[in-house]
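User: What would this chain look like folded?
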Amino acid sequence: MKTNKLLLLFTLLIFSVGYSQIEQIKKIDSIFDKKTEEIPVKNKNSKKYWKYASEINSQRIAEYDQLLHEIYQKDSAEIPTLQIQQEDKIISYKNNGIGGFRNEVGGYIDMMEHPFFPNLTGLTLRSELKWIIDENGFIKKVEAIGENEAFNTLTKIALYKTEGNWIPAQKNGQNIQSSYRFPVSIQIE
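Assistant: Here's the prediction, encoded as structure tokens.
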């Protein structure tokens, strides 16, 4: 009985640590969504609106960057290096597999709702996400490589918003840490 209580407490602790990242992201989103709603310009297509919204979203990106830096430093201390091992069962995504993941990430990078890149109309932005799914299914050590740092930040935030939907890889019936890569691109219209 005592073992079951300890196991439940440990599980709740792991769950709360993993989801605190999502809560921090939601807090940032809430603050800057409210600021965006309070822009005194009614026409969302006007240059004046885009000016205000771009300033607000630059601040949002800076807050995201600070949070992501803190998370990466913590993850790096916990997982200094990943031992390469051949898994018996690879990482999977609960919500309709890789197609569901692709759709969710794309939905989290909503360029029309948040005009992050007003001067890049007509361009395609690309980033390659790299991360580790730990043995508990949590996202760790997220990196994004691409030419536009703001877009890299948004792709990392979109990935963290999928937390809780990952099933870790397995080796000999035991969950193991495993790395994953995923390219993200978006056409700005």
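Residues 3-18 have pLDDT under 50 and may be disordered. If you want, I can go into more detail on any region.
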